[in-house]
Amino acid sequence: MCKNILFSEEGGMKYTEITSRKNGAVAFAASLSDKRERDASGLFPIEGIKLFCEAVKEGFEIDSVFFTREALGKYAVSLESAEIGSAYLVTDEVYSRMTTEKAPQGIYACVKKKDNSALLERELEKGSLVILDGIQNPQNIGAIFRSAYSLGFDRIILSADCADIYGPKCSRAAMGSLFKVKAFCCGDIPTVIGKIRENGNRVFCAALSEKSKKLGDVTFLKGDCIVIGNEGHGVSPETLDACGNTLYIPMNEGAESLNAACAASLLFWEMRKSVLTENI
Length: 280
Prior knowledge:
Layout: E1 2-6, E2 14-18, H1 24-31, H2 35-41, E3 43-47, H3 49-57, E4 62-67, H4 69-81, E5 84-90, H5 92-98, E6 107-112, H6 120-126, E7 130-133, H7 138-150, E8 155-159, H8 168-174, H9 177-180, E9 182-186, H10 189-198, E10 203-206, E11 213-214, E12 225-229, H11 237-242, E13 245-248, H12 260-279
Parallel strand pairs: 2-5, 4-5, 7-8, 7-12, 8-9, 10-12, 10-13, 11-13
Antiparallel strand pairs: 1-2, 3-6, 4-6
Helix pairs in contact: 1-5, 7-8, 7-12
């Protein structure tokens, strides 16, 4: 069951009230937890007022938003000030069909993806890129996005076999950084690395080899790029061959390799600390 209601006479925003879990709009929104549906529709889901406001702030198109009555009471100003394709007031029971949160705030939005593919060639000339090769844990990718943006990297290239950045686990881990970082998906990472090097920028790969330099002994330059590989297997042999430099993070003897997101944060800090120090 659903009916149209005027949300605010002053603002003029309208919403539709939905009380059935079988409603088509609700079913579609819930289906976006599946990558195939996200790819087919060009939309992805986000939850919570922070992610909603960050998406709006960074110019992402909000296709639709679903909110509970309690959320409407708390976040009416933010909802009313945003440009939204369709707005829906739903019961708690209806909302439970969509949410993937343990403690949901009652805000669920379907957001249009941004296609950055046409920008990739130009971005390669600038250097200072993060490249992710085969990272399959979405929470790791989200955490890498968050650390990357915090430490001055705002462009990330992902290999085709990386986890989808638009999945709920990744967007939740990335927080607002998902909307601040330009993301590019590429099926041929070695070729991309080759073009970066042709443009005069160095590419470092986090990998252990006889020629690897210890992190802390490397003097980084402004345009340097970093490649971070799969959690268990590292970077692919083709990607490793394409990189001109390898480095490793020194650890206690007998310690296991670091989580990809933790390793990335250390690498980002070392690459950016001189620049950050100059700006403090």
